[in-house]
Specification:
three-stranded antiparallel β-sheet; mainly beta; 12 strands; 261 residues; Immunoglobulin-like
């Protein structure tokens, strides 16, 4: 994984401090957490924000997590990369770098998620929690114009960019669609209303929410959303932009935890 310094590091560093301060205030309401636990969570979140300031480019796939499927949903000049991964190991993993892009003939591969200007973009190039023996469907959306017939690829690295302490049992976030499928049928990034409920006492920072729709064995819609903060035992609704059509398709919503104890 190659990394180089970003030109807007001072600005992003200031943003990270501001975000940490806001989340600290939210964390003070968590109640059940000790001061040390909450400090560790905030430090991890700040480290992830700092890591997102650096470009991420996976050249060689690791063996910790396998890519079992990769596809594109293309609508109106936008592309959603849909990547299914499986953790065949005996331990949960997180924070593994992931690169997606396309290959066209003998041309050099085009990496599309190398770096994002957004502050909370860490999980646009890293995987959240993938439990032992479990699968996760990760989504990345871009408005970059890509060759129509190019083949999508996904590479997951071997070494986590950050070490996230884990507990047993792992947090569970329940996610479900509120918007009827018939209401989200137009091409483009239509909003899908999603309901979230944190079933654990562990607050989540940069919680990842993915929506995937499949019809006749083919992905026909996908979208992702980052929730900056979801408190312990808390619920909320959000508008998740989804690219494609979900009419008469099997819709799946995944909320992947990012904080584990």
């Amino acid at each position: 994984m190659a990394r180089s310094a970003s030109s807007d590091t001072p600005r992003r560093a200031t943003a990270a401090v501001t975000t940490a301060a806001v989340l600290a205030a939210a964390g003070a309401l968590a109640g059940c957490a000790t001061t040390q636990q909450e400090a560790a969570r905030l430090q991890l979140n700040a480290a992830r924000i700092r890591a997102s300031e650096q470009p991420t480019e996976v050249k060689v796939a690791g063996q910790t997590v396998d890519v079992t499927r990769v596809a594109r949903v293309v609508t109106g000049g936008q592309t959603a990369f849909v990547v299914q991964v499986r953790n065949s190991g005996r331990r949960p993993v997180s924070d593994l770098p992931i690169s997606v892009g396309v290959r066209a003939g003998k041309e050099r591969p085009i990496y599309v998620n190398r770096q994002s200007p957004a502050e909370l973009s860490y999980f646009g190039a890293h995987l959240p929690l993938v439990a032992a023996g479990a699968t996760l469907t990760w989504v990345y959306t871009t408005d970059r114009r890509l060759p129509a017939h190019a083949r999508p690829f996904a590479l997951v690295g071997a070494t986590p960019s950050n070490t996230a302490p884990r507990a047993n049992p792992l947090p569970v976030i329940r996610a479900s669609a509120v918007t009827p499928a018939t209401a989200v049928s137009a091409a483009g990034a239509s909003p899908l209303t999603v309901s979230l409920h944190n079933l654990s006492s562990v607050p989540q920072y940069q919680l990842q929410v993915y929506a995937i729709a499949e019809r006749a064995g083919r992905y026909v819609a996908a979208g992702s959303f980052t929730v900056p903060h979801l408190g312990s035992d808390a619920s909320r609704r959000l508008k998740l932009p989804i690219l494609g059509h979900i009419n008469h398709a099997r819709l799946q919503i995944e909320a992947a935890p990012t904080i584990f104890q």
